[in-house]
Each structure stands twice: as structure tokens, then as C-alpha cells.
Amino acid sequence: MIVETQKRIKLKTPDELLEVLKDRCFMRQEGWWSYEFCYQNKLRQLHLEDDKVVQEFILGVYDAEATAAFNQNLSDISTLKDPRSKDASQRYHAHQYTNGTLCDLTNQPRETEVRFVCSEPRAMISSITELSTCKYALTIQCPMLCKHPLFQEERPVWHTIDCNVLPNDYKATKVEEDKVESKQILMVTGDKEYPSSYQTEE
């Protein structure tokens, strides 16, 4: 007697796949500013001179509660499509970083949405944008997310169309069938019928 057991493979969640980033920090320089992102820690905007920090703003500290609430409102997998992305199918998983340095213009703490996207070949900061005053979006390329099917690139669906040559004995519909004989239209009002002076065109 053979007994078959069904093994159900449980997919790792995006956060489980991202655990390899724990205790890692990433740097990106854009002109005057450098950005330092430490996974589940904080995001800093720095100006360095001779490898010394001369100006610093905290753009957000990892907020586990805000992240959980944000992702719970979406779905268990919590994947989003970036409307600014050139690739409309680009999905991302988001973490919320709040309670940064107070913003002079809004009098509110700076905050950042960190967006993790599937991208090869290595983990790195790919972009940072200011969505509105002192509110930022940081995009992190993560090859480990590519292991999850929801983050894999959408492939176009191809359909095959077969064309056949019409046989030589094929005849178009007879012209006689297309002709409409002229008919007289009757207008009925009450008990009387009046012939119309309009006739259908041939």
C-alpha cells in the first residue's frame, strides 16, 4: 500500500525574505548630500567633509507599529505598484520610518516610506525622492525579494493566430440577397391606414 503525502510549501513573506538585511547599512551620495539607510533602524541625510559629518538630518526611525498597520490595511502580502516607476509592473513592499528631525517648514517630524523592490544583482539604494515637504520615499533594490512570485516580472501572454487561404471556389454572398426590394410604408392611425410617400432606396 502506497500512501502519498502532500507537502505544502509555505512561501516566505517579504519581511522574512528581507531578514538578511538586518544589521546592514547602505550609503548613497547625491551631490551635496549622502544618505545612510540602516535596515529596521534609521535613515539619515548627511553632509560629509573629510569623512566627518558636518550636517545631519534624521529622515525617519523604523516604526514597527506604523509599518504593521500600513501593511495590514493592504493585504497579507502587502505589495504595491509604484506610480512613479517607468515599469508599471514594478511592485514594492513598504516599511514606515517616522519621527525624524523636526522640519522647519511644516513643524512636523520628517518621515520616509522605504520601498523594497525586486532587483538584481545586489541590495542597494536606487533612489530617494521628496514626495512632499519633508516626506520622502526611499527605494531599495533587493534581489532576495525576487524569490517571491508576486515580485517577479510579469510576462506578456502570447497567443497564436492561424491564418488560412480561402479556397478557390469560395464565392461572395450573392448580390441578389443583398438587394432590398422597395416597399411601401403604411402609417396606421386609429382604424385608418395611410400609404406613405416614402419608399426605401434600392
UniProtKB/TrEMBL annotation:
Keyword Endoplasmic reticulum tagged: yes
Domain MRH intervals: 23-148
Keywords: Disulfide bond, Endoplasmic reticulum, Glycoprotein, Lectin, Signal
GO cellular component: a single term: endoplasmic reticulum lumen
Xref: InterPro entries: Man6P_isomerase_rcpt-bd_dom_sf, MRH_dom, OS-9-like, OS9-like_dom
Pfam families, sorted: PRKCSH
Broad class of the protein's primary localization: endoplasmic reticulum
GO biological process: endoplasmic reticulum unfolded protein response; retrograde protein transport, ER to cytosol
Gene3D superfamilies hit by this protein: Mannose-6-phosphate receptor binding domain
Subcellular compartments: Endoplasmic reticulum
Keyword Translocase: no
Gene Ontology molecular-function annotations: carbohydrate binding
Family: Belongs to the OS-9 family.
Protein name: Protein OS-9 homolog
Source organism (scientific name): Citrus sinensis
